[in-house]
Amino acid sequence: MQASVAVIGAGYVGLTTAVCLAHMGHSVTCGDIDEKRVTQLSKGDVPIFEKGLDEMVKEGLSSGRLRFVAGASRAAKRAEYVFLCVPTPRMPSGMPDMSVISSVAREIAPVLRSRTVVVNKSTVPAGSALMVERMIGRSDVKVVSNPEFLREGTAVSDFLHPDRIVIGSDDEQSAVRVSSLFAGISAPIMITDAMTAETVKYVANAFLATKISFANSVAELCEALGVEVKDVLLGIAYDHRIGFEYLSPGPGWGGSCLPKDTRALLSFSSASGYDMELLEAAVRANEEHEAWIARKALSMLGVSDDYRKDGLVVAVCGVSFKAGTDDTRDSPALAFLTTLAEKGMSLRVFDPALRNVAGGLPEGTVVCDDPYSACSGADLLCIMTEWEEFRWMDFSKVMDVMVTPKILDARNLLDPIVIRKLGFAYEGVGRR
Ligand code: UGA
To answer: If residue 406 lies in a helix (H) or strand (E), which one and from where to where?
Structure first.
């Protein structure tokens, strides 16, 4: 069945949804408020760093199944299904800002065809589908929740090969109609009521965040005990009840989703009369772990916690919140750079995907064109993002350009035996 679909929002979720639905044979119109972005996309020029998107946009445009227009109502007016993929950023209270979703709902309400199903993919608190349905205010238009579980960097593959598809609606017929859009995708489809689907999204991200906080705290424990974290975590991961995923210790979890969604869940669970103390602890553990990593760097430089030392040079490889993306929102690397800058360090950074840094780099940071230039004259090299190319750097060359050969590997990317043999002082996260 080929359906006529509108996707509102051409960010990484909207664009991925649009190109994948077009790839699956649907006729898709993607609307965005940003006219410049629409012009760019219409020419096949993708403004987002996301694996596979370039090819998929070109495929959609050349097949005639994908087009881009400016404005939500232009995109929505002929569609049978309208996917809302607009941002819901964090407000100071921790709650998501619903203003964009509300204004889109009001804008499209008068132009929607009868029996259109509005599908909400934006991450919104339980009860939002009902709220959007009331805003649209038409008895012939239903709103369904279909949360996304797309990771930045692998969003296209996550869309086409999901672990599950969750569709929540208080109108079963609309849910079944939405499920038919995914025919051809091999994954369990779970149909629930709307509030359950909305809750699944937050609980999934809260669980992932808690699991990583657990792995990071085990890494700190291993370091205190003098045992190797990789072996300890591997020893538990073989237990299929625990699994291998989301157990890699690092500099802390960041990005545009986990920090925002955990805080939102804490806010609205507490507003509903239940304090999720376990999640609160996971969030606090993440903040403390980020500070622990910064203390480790300072200690390798011989700088004590309550002391400032000017003139030392630190090379930082990786600024994005993880490999495979240029996104620096809530990146642990940015918090790390800020702490080091406050301690008087001169910072030299390299990231293969660095474009616009959310919140900016600390003043005076030198952005380098390659990792060797970042390491030039450095007293310490810190690897903050797990880009594969950092694993395969020529470390003899790194040794030649550094003032003191010291490496803090906040992603446990390197082999400590090889690196120490080359003459580096090496520290990882929870490693011997
Ligand atoms: C996350 C979820 O994984 C997606 O399922 C969800 O759809 C998305 O948020 C969203 O809500 O839109 P993403 O933000 O792309 O996806 O990031 P992840 O790949 O989950 O990584 C989050 C953070 O945890 C990163 O900083 C990453 O480096 C860190 N991490 C992840 C670890 O430190 N260790 C791990 O083992 C895994």
So the answer is: strand 406-409
